[in-house]
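Researcher: I'm preparing a figure for a lab meeting and need a structural model of a single chain. I don't have an experimental structure, so a prediction will have to do for now. The sequence is pasted below. Please return the structure as tokens so I can convert it later.
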Amino acid sequence: MAKSPPLLTRPQSHSPKKYHQHPKRRPMSPFCISIFLLVTCVAFFTLFQIQSLHTPPSSSSPWSLMHQWRKVTTSSQELTSMAEKLKQAVTFLPLKDLRYQDKALEGHTWFMSSMYDIHEEGEVQYQQFPSESSNGRLLCLKGRDTHDGSWNSYALAWPETLPLNASLLKGLTFVSYNHYNYDNIWHGLSAVVPFVAWHIRNGCESPSRWILYHWGELRFKMSTWLRTLTEATYGADPYIEGFEWANNSEPVCFEKAVVMRHNEGGMSRERRIETYDLMRCKARAYCNLSLEDARINDKGLPRIGLTLFMRTGPRSFRNESAVIGIFEKECAKVEGCKLMVAYSNNLTFCEQVKLMSLTDILASPHGAQLTNMFLMDRNSSVMEFFPKGWLKLAGVGQYVYHWIASWSGMKHQGAWRDPDGDPCPFPEDDRRCMSVYKGGKIGFNETYFSEWAANILSEVKRRKMENVSNNTTASTSSCPCS
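Model: Understood. Here is the structure written out token by token.
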């Protein structure tokens, strides 16, 4: 069936046009047409070649695209091969470097000895991964030995080329090195303090997990006191990573890690006070303490809390009742004074926080229980008691509570050292005598204790009266990092 012709729209003409007859033209012969087409093609080809000599080849030409694709494929294969080589080239070193065991705490220490700390004046000494100093590399750890830290190891790796079979843990990881232990609350607190200082200076960022090391050996717990303080400070129960799920030979890498190995070393007093202020505030908030009504008695006079913080066993008083009687007598002479007697081994964390919050003068034998002093208000007083022999033989460790008093804004009012004690079979300055004196009992001197207590009570009363008259009391505002 034939198709109907297409409809064409033409303009209408009102006057008819005459069409003139042109003479009929003669068609070109096939030979001429062929010659014409050949000449045209040669001309176009010649022009194209001339242009190509002056114009760089187009990147979109098929040949160019194919060439670039081959280059991309080759480069991709080379990058993949290079990444595999980098993964295999990650070198793990022992966490505990025995070459530095004689200088285990100096400089780069024997823990992660190839790494140097980041340290700004007055701030904590720490390592952070990734960072500029690590060239953007992450920290990776391997091994979970609890007896020999040289069997555990560390390495650095770029995020794109982690070691073979490595696991990557997301979030912030705190890696703590403690030369002593996490059971003693003084040594444990010393290890935690620098992390709190870092937390304050870095936008209050909190960790997803903690990794605890002692001499490069993995540890899995803190004392209950330290764990609760850490929970109060960061707002969550600390998760202590034990790597039970990991193969001992397979590395674990961390999206972000902060490593501390110098405790408070490098921190200015101002920075330490700021850190202890935050922990005090957080601990009181955690324990729901409100102290406004407890600071003033019914007569409008300041309350003065005098606490005897007793020990049982080593470094306890030989005659507790006599010591209590001396302080009770002096406290009764000062209006507003209240004597409290407590034992550190039978109080919960919050009971200790409350006791310290009500204490202005803390009297206690040398021992870890004195660590609680930072929970008192700033400018509170500390009285310390030692058994015989410590001054000559105990070394600088006997001054740790002088240090924490200064760092937390307290006043260490001196120490009484018992001149009498158990006899030592060696000369008194022989270091072997320390094993006899270390846990010795502590006697008393009624005259000295009475005068000492009276002087400190008078000083504290005067200071607190000035605070009342000036209407200056300890701040009860919300804590930083809340």
